[in-house]
Amino acid sequence: MELKFNIAIVGSGLTGSITSLALAKAGYKVALIDPKSFEEFKENNYDTRTTALSKKSKLFFEYLNLWQRMQPFTCMIKNIMVNDGNYEKNIYFNKTQRKKNKPLGFMIRNKDLFAILVDVIKKNKNISKFDNKVNIFYRDQENVTIKLDDKRVITSHLLIAADGKNSFIRKKSGIKTSRKSYNQKAFIFNVKHTKSHNNLATENFLKHGPLASLPIIQNKSNCYSSIVWSCNHPFYYKMIKYAKKDIERELNFYLSEYYGKLTIITKVKSWDLTLVKAQKFFDTRILLLGDAAHSIHPLAGQGLNLTLKGIETLHKLAKNNKTKVDIGSDKILNAFSKKQYLNSTAIIFATDKLNFLFSNSNFFLKKTREIGLYVFKRSDILKNIFKNYASEGKLSIK
Ligand SMILES: Cc1cc2nc3c(=O)[nH]c(=O)nc-3n(C[C@H](O)[C@H](O)[C@H](O)COP(=O)(O)OP(=O)(O)OC[C@H]3O[C@@H](n4cnc5c(N)ncnc54)[C@H](O)[C@@H]3O)c2cc1C
């Protein structure tokens, strides 16, 4: 039996799930395909990460009617501190500004975000979830035919690859990638601390890699933050042998000044950090979204925010498509790609160079960094550019 949809999305991680809702809102019938069932996503023991959402992403979630449900699970970031291992040179964003209560971003645990997405998708009549793996697909001038691992067949006008960094769809479509290993891995875990975080996020550019702490929701008696510690390989391989209490000791050394005594309260998980960028974001009847298109360094928390910009662009193209031009046509895919490719290139470049400059103990770069931070501290324009990059995922002065 052949099942017909306007759009098929392969992968129901954050990218695929949010895209399905955005396209269903534009009136399209969507097949969402992932061997992981919704129940597995809700349990979600594999993704212990938290996500920093920009103000622009929040607006998009409001538009999708998701924010109201997400809001109780979010924690505002009201201030960001950037440091180069020398506390006297700390740079704060928002501290001296009048509107100091204005948020710079919002933190949410991926687990909470997934639980909400699953609930909403289940109730959406335009979305059908298939708990399957895609093994084969064929394309012709009008359709994509997708064969699932249980032999069912789906046809659609467009296939969206939201199947992650090592995308099967991208590979089989013959889309090449450029890759760069950062020779770093990131430790991810959550901590409880004795002092309130006061909605402060910190980014410590240490000689062995950037250490970020991000405020997460706190109750009356306990305060929590999420840690993303990107470590250059030698330091990572040293740390991986450590017991939890030893990692805690290192962490307290760098962060107790801001948060009091820190205790690790979750498993310590690690992620490989490699920059992967597809050389193009579409091919006949195929569109790449999320990590399938670009997987970037998490140091500024821009990955999903960049993806959300792409989803918003696609939603607008789909919604404004009054004459119902084929959604998988080159005309639509080209219009999407023009905008999203430029956005991605700018953000990828900025994130990559920031990591290069700050995660390097080379004498020349160290000096450049010191001079850079000195100028940075005194330049409102540069501070504004960084603030917009960190909180809104855009490179601008305003
Ligand atoms: C440590 C870390 C911290 C981060 N922090 C932030 C942050 O603060 N802010 C931010 O904006 N971004 C952040 N990011 C980036 C963000 O988390 C990712 O961009 C995002 O989770 C990627 O989601 P995805 O859905 O594209 O891919 P994935 O989560 O990898 O999902 C891919 C899905 O595709 C499915 N799949 C694969 N192959 C097939 C197949 N053949 N058939 C069917 N299904 C298939 C898989 O089962 C999986 O569910 C961070 C990333 C990392 C690594």
List keywords for this structure.
single chain; alpha/beta; FAD/NAD(P)-binding domain; 2 domains; 9-stranded mixed sheet; 37% helix; globular; binds flavin-adenine dinucleotide
What does this structure look like?
The chain has 2 domains: 2-66 and 110-179 and 276-354, FAD/NAD(P)-binding domain (3-Layer(bba) Sandwich), CATH 3.50.50.60; 69-108 and 180-272 and 363-392, D-Amino Acid Oxidase, Chain A, domain 2, CATH 3.30.9.10. The chain has 12 helices and 22 strands. The chain has helices at residues 14-25, 38-43, 55-63, 67-70, 110-122, 168-172, 233-239, 244-259, 303-319, 330-358, 363-378, 380-392; strands spanning 2-4, 7-10, 30-33, 50-53, 75-77, 79-83, 91-93, 105-109, 127-130, 134-139, 144-148, 153-156, 158-161, 177-193, 200-206, 209-216, 223-232, 262-264, 269-278, 282-283, 286-288, 294-295. The strands form 4 sheets. Strands 6, 7, 14, 15, 16, 17, 18, 19 and 22 form a 9-stranded mixed sheet that branches. Strands 9-3-2-13-21-20 form a 6-stranded mixed sheet. The model has no long low-confidence stretch (mean pLDDT 86). Flavin-adenine dinucleotide binds at residues 10-16, 33-36, 49, 51-52, 133-134, 162-164, 168, 186, 188, 228, 271, 290-291, 298, 301-305, 307.
SSE layout and pairing:
Layout (H helix, E strand, L loop, with lengths): L1 E3 L2 E4 L3 H12 L4 E4 L4 H6 L6 E4 L1 H9 L3 H4 L4 E3 L1 E5 L7 E3 L11 E5 H13 L4 E4 L3 E6 L4 E5 L4 E4 L1 E4 L6 H5 L4 E17 L6 E7 L2 E8 L6 E10 H7 L4 H16 L2 E3 L4 E10 L3 E2 L2 E3 L5 E2 L7 H17 L10 H29 L4 H16 L1 H13 L6
Parallel strand pairs: 1-12, 2-3, 2-13, 3-9, 6-15, 13-21
Antiparallel strand pairs: 4-8, 5-8, 6-7, 10-11, 11-12, 14-17, 14-18, 14-19, 15-16, 16-17, 19-22, 20-21
Helix pairs in contact: 1-5, 1-9, 9-10
The chain binds flavin-adenine dinucleotide (FAD).
